[in-house]
Amino acid sequence: MATASESKGPDSKDGTWNGRELKSILATDCGSTTTKAVLIEKRGDEYRLVVRGEAPTTVEAPFEDVTRGVLNAIMEIEELAGRKILDGERIISPQNGTEGVDIYLSTSSAGGGLQMMVTGVVKAMTGESAERAALGAGAIVMDIVASNDGRLPHEKVRRIRDLRPDMILLSGGIDGGTKTHVVELAEIIAAADPKPRLGQAYKLPIIYAGNKDATAEVKERLGSKTDLVVTDNIRPSMELENLMPARHKIHDLFMEHVMAQAPGYRKLMSWSPVPIMPTPAAVGNIIERVAKERHMQVVGVDIGGATTDVFSVFQGVFNRTVSANLGMSYSVSNVLAEAGLANVMRWVPFSIEESDLRNRIKNKMIRPTTIPQTLEELQIEQAISREALRLAFQQHKALAVGLKGVQQERTISDTFEQTASGETLINLLGLNLLVGSGGVLSHAPRRVQSAWMMLDAFLPEGVTDLAVDSIFMMPQLGVLAEVSTKAATDVFVRDCLIYLGSSVSVIGRGKDGQKCLKATLDLPGGKKEFDLNFGTMQIVPLDVDQTAEAVLEPAQGFDVGAGKGKSLKATLKGGVVGLVFDCRGRQPFALPESHDERIKKFTEWSGALGAYPGLARS
Length: 618
Fold this sequence. Notes:
By secondary structure, this protein is α/β, with parallel strands linked by helices. It is built from 17 helices and 27 strands. The strands form six sheets. Strands 18-17-16-19-20-21-27-24 form an eight-stranded mixed beta sheet, with helices on both faces.
């Protein structure tokens, strides 16, 4: 199989591959249950989505060949597009007239995705760096084994044996530092002699990305027992984190070992000149590319049935976390357990017995494929989603931090400006774009419900653009970005995202009814002024592709991004929802404590947003 590095390679500026213009691109995402295919073509100067198709994934019995599902999804593309792409079971490439495509690409999370363990000498330093490297490569991190994690050596050995990861990332120590601890970690792995989850005939891949001076000792202990690969130290010094070499090795070994054991993947790999990417890594890739291309601070979330992934790019630093126990079907009871019943119930806009709510949540877990049939069931599901998203974002903020253990040099002038090491990089006031994905967000009956869930869960501050991924096309665009950034970003902006509109969220606390914001908007129909009170929400209609120049004047004690009481000029973007003004306050955000008062406020907000027409319960 040719890889991107072996070929002449992509030209990400003008959309060519191996010196040939890319006129058509076929990309698939092989998920755990469904394989999704998209056909992208160049129309004029930009790339656009033409059609999409899907079919059941066939990695398990009775088919046990992932390519069967891929071919079925491509056949649906052929039917919808009215063009021939397959010659028997071969993809016609390059495009010849109206037949075939110029390139085929794929991502995969079939078989449970990539499951890894990571190690580090100090859990809060090299351990966290290793976790960030693995998460950024699209892995689920099953555990962090660290010299200082409080477990005895035999407990660590037992843990490694029990979890049976696909791969282990061994890190620890700075270059030139002490070798003792990282060598001890290598000895623990050697003693565990872990067996891989998939395929018993091959050695477990181990990536060593620690103190380069300990490489010989690590090879001595692991070289014969495992498939050991050495790469650059992820923490060469206390002040530097170097994650990309380890991430690239994870991708390579994922294809060579993990995916190669799954039925049909060797054949699938031969169809594409670009390595197959883990689905979460591809989603992170497109978010990272778009953020850097457009110089934006971005947060993206994908909430599924079992897990919730959060991605962010702040100050040019990409981070991804996966909350493997927070989801809307298989893991829904975990959301209740972690959030607590009271936190879930605070988002339910009607009276319900605690036992009734518990039973409904448990029924969802044992019947994970069911969808809400009534308005009450929908509101309960969306209440749970708020807590799943909130908890996943909290976990993300805890990991997306500056380097811990760094001695920072400060002068008197920056004493009050420089953030401490280990402080989160997430700055909600600087957030430009919040993207939601996953069934509960992408398929909400009304788009305004998605906007409301995202506002409640993430609590953005100041001016933030809201969007949802309409058909979960981000994985295919993530791998496409490896070939052509232009093609990937064109489709991401034009066809993948549904823009809900800009939100304006006021920071500060006040009394209900107190004036908190005056907004002067230069709308397409003329200039309008709005006086907004604390505790309210309001929508101002503004269509997709329309903008409004705004002057936002917060009342004394309130802030929209320029400082307390200081006005802010901003360009607000329209969307299918419009402009959303959220005057419920931040730092802290608080719902009414009284049950009746809380339901009253939900009814009021629902009426203002048009979220649940007819909601008027008491």
